[in-house]
Amino acid sequence: METAVPEVTTEFLQAFADAWNRHDVDALMSFMTEDCVFESSAGPDACGARYVGREAVRAAFSDVWAVFPDAHWADARHCVQGDRGVSEWTFRGTRSDGSRVEVHGCDLFTFRAGKILLKNSYRKNRTPS
Q1: Residue 90 class from Cβ within 10 Å (0-12 exposed, 13-18 middle, 19+ buried)?
Q2: Beta bridge partner(s), residue 37
Q3: Phi and psi of 30, rounded to 5°?
Q4: Mean pLDDT of each 10-residue bin along the chain, 129 residues long
Q5: Among 10, 34, 61, 100, which residue's CB has the most CB atoms within a 10 Å radius?
Q6: What SS3 state is found at 68?
Q7: Which residues contact residue 43 at a Cβ distance below 8 angstroms, ignoring those fewer than 6 apart?
Q8: How far apart (Å, rounded) are the C-alpha atoms in residues 127 and 32?
Q9: Is the separation of the CB atoms in 92 and 101 below 8 Å?
C-alpha cells in the first residue's frame, strides 16, 4: 500500500511565511526537503546566490536575520498549482547601519513529496531617493 504524499497548500505556504516572521529556522527547515535549494534574490550568479543542501540553506536563512534583525514579511499572498507555488510579500527590515528597507518581492517554489525542494527569491531593487 502506498503512503499518501501530503499536498502542499496555501496554508502550508502561510505557515512557512509565519516561521520567517518568528525568525524560527528550525521550523523553516521542517518545510524543506533533505536536498533543498535556496536561490537568493542577490548574489554573483544569474540566479543570485545558490545554496544547496540543508546546512547551506539553514545558514543562508539565518544570515537574513543577522543582516536584518527586525526582518518582517507582510501582506503575504500565496498560490499553489501542483508541484509549483508562489508567495508574494512586502519585506521590511533595518540594517545594522540604521538604513530601512521596504520592498515587494516573491518566492517561486518547487515542491516534492509535500515539502519545498526549491525556494527561488526575487525582490524589487529600490534606488536611493
Answers
A1: middle
A2: 52, 118
A3: -70, -15
A4: 74 98 98 98 91 98 95 97 97 93 97 97 84
A5: 61
A6: coil
A7: 49, 50
A8: 33
A9: yes
Q: What angle do CA 64, 52, 55 make, to 5 degrees?
A: 65
Q: How many CB atoms lie within 10 A of CB 18?
A: 13
Report the SS3 class of residue 12: helix
Shortest CA distance to 116 belongs to which of 47, 56, 34? 34
Residue 22, classified by CB atoms within 10 Å of its CB into exposed (0-12), middle (13-18) or buried (19+), is exposed
CATH 3.10.450.50 fits 10-123, yes or no: yes
Instruction: Extract the C-alpha cell encoding 46.
Output: 544569474
Closest alpha carbon to 61 in 17, 102, 10, 95: 17
Q: Quote the CA–CA distance of 41 and 125 in Å, as a whole number.
A: 10
From the list 31, 30, 14, 28, the residue with the least C-alpha distance to 64 is 28
